[in-house]
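[SOLVED] Predicted holo structure with pyridoxal-5'-phosphate

Edit: marking solved, answer below. Original request kept for reference. I posted the sequence and ligand SMILES and asked for the 3D complex as structure tokens.
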Amino acid sequence: MNDPEQMKERKRPFLTEEKAREIARKYPTPFHVYDERKIRNHIENINRAFSWNKGYRQYFAVKANPNPYLLRIMKEYDWGCDCSSMTELILAKELGFDGSHIMFSSNCTPAEEYAFANKIGGIINLDDFTDVAGLEKTVGRLPETICCRYNPGGVFQLSNGIMDTPGEAKYGMTKDQILTAFALMKGKGVKRFGLHAFLASNTVTNEYYPKLAEILFRLAVEIKTAIGIDISFVDLSGGVGLAYKPQDIPNDILTIGESVRQVYEKILIPAGLENVAIYTEMGRFAMGDCGALITKVVHEKHTYKEYVGCDACASNLMRPMLYRAYHHITVLGKENEDCNCKYDVTGSLCENSDKFAVDRMLPKIEIGDLLYIHDTGAHGHSMGYQYNGKLRSAEILLKEDGSYQLIRRAETVKDYFATLDFSDILSNITGKKGEQNE
Ligand SMILES: *Cc1c(COP(=O)(O)O)cnc(C)c1O
């Protein structure tokens, strides 16, 4: 199953060294680049996987990659946006997503965000029982459609050993709270109810969605029996994982969709719940492998270990620093060379954890080589930050015809200073008004 050729094939860059250098001549490294063909291909596959379900809709988790150009591509395929903050809601609205295409799955939510989500007609997904009263107080009359986030507690385990601990997670309501909330909201005129849960992150197995669906479908049946509410939709949220490592077997969304269908037929149909729409909020699986971070090797260092330093750092891609996450690295132009040198691949932050890879076997690297850091299309640029005064990079869209487009420019020092007003500081130093200081 895991022969080296297959592993290599899985981790083949979507652009050549030549193309990367062509782009870099115009937009200096580092930059994130996205492959439009791959994006469209993924979208079509995801839609096909759930085409058996009449009301199916995918709401892309905007936090994974909030670039408007990419969201606009998704919009062509009738996808919606899954938002969790005011800014994301505004972004979705400005891009022309209507209320039925906006899911608001937030937690610890400020009242004004609920008010805005309600104003633009988005579907509100309540994280906590107290949000029912909070929302009513904020918007006056509860919207016709409301979703509640479920947390079954305990440990969630899949047969390949993947587990997560919903009991430790801050999200969602207990079963009793959901039942009470639904009965309460029904009395207050809510017409359409949804159930949502996110129980494990980055699951590299086709088993996750079907297992989650089973839990939520059974709860839907229980709700119907106990309080006579027919659930309108079940939102499976995100959590479908990415094969970050070459030895990981990638998820197959068509298999996943078909398995969810089987659970649907087994549990919902016999209970008379044959009109339940399935929603998803995939971020990582939809976009992760459609993006790469291109960075130039600018330094090498030989001390107790072999280091190569690049012009990107954790400001551009935090996952390795934050989660010790694995991101595969290809040295562009050396795809077929033996990986017989061991390196730590570092950025320039004054943090020892600023390493894209530790003890990674790679071909012999020279200064000037371009590294292709895989799978940065989700939770990559969007997690960037400005620690150490490092600035976030540009984003480039590689189009199907081989041309490319700058879809977000790199930050400049001016952006970094944009939230500051220097005039006081300068006048304190010089005794003059800032603008007179020369
Ligand atoms: C983060 C998040 C997602 C997306 O998760 P992925 O693992 O990227 O698919 C979806 N829904 C909610 C509510 C989230 O917080």
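OP edit: Residues 61, 63-64, 82, 84, 105, 198, 201, 237-240, 281-285, 378 surround pyridoxal-5'-phosphate (CB under 6 Å). Thanks to everyone who chimed in.
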